[in-house]
Task: structure prediction
Amino acid sequence: MKKSTLFILPFILFATTGCSNNDAIYMVHNYDEQNLTGIDVKATDLVTMLDGKMSFVLYTYSESCVHCTTVSEHFATYIEENNLLMYRFYPMDVNYQDLVDKWPSIFPEYRTTPKVQIIKDGELMVEINVSRLYEYKLFSQSMSQFVRESSYYTLSKYDSFQRFDSSFDDFLIFFYRSDNQDSVFNFSQNIYNALSSCRLPSLFIDIESAEQELLNQLRETYSLQEQLEQIAFHIKNGTKKEEVTYTYENPSSLQTFISQFID
Result:
């Protein structure tokens, strides 16, 4: 996945009343310095994310779309205010038909932009009515209705981690690979959802997009093994208190590790 400078979102129905946590996804705060950084995804990336049952906000756009300019500006403002991690997709992807064949409710044959969709557990939860995308107040209300506050964070740079480490003295770290379907599925089912009631901040690091300096410094600082993908650990006052390794086939040790931090 390649970093970019714009973003994303969700479907059609729009009740004016609030929604329960079952009708929302938990936001992931982007702790990198560039608040206005989204992640560009290709069709192949989306296949991995959807097969992996990820929950995320997806913004489908086109550079030739006049209305996309307005929506992108609203999105930039919202992202800047909330430091959220979002994804954007250009639908003229050569592999778009693969998405149509497998997820026609998310990716129709006829490609329209702008489109903001909220994906929960790999399925379309809601697509924000296009009429609510053009006015920032309505846009913000729509986002807030379907994206819930959380203690989830992500970053890709070592200086970002230093700022995070100076802000929190007690937190958890989890690694995953966004280019590996098994890793993404494990992250979605055994980490992301399980931590919704965790009392500690949880830092998610995508090994595939993280800078090598960050990974090397974490290995050195916390005496971590070379293979980071299937480990999680607890940091308190700058010291690694506990580390767990697990397999995708049997994540019970991971689940036991997480359970001790759930209220």
Observations:
- Confidence is low (pLDDT under 50) at residues 1-20.
- The domain at 2-150 is CATH 3.40.30.10 (Glutaredoxin).
- The helical segments are 43-51, 66-82, 96-102, 136-146, 158-167, 181-192, 212-222, 252-259.
- The chain has two domains: 2-150, 155-259.
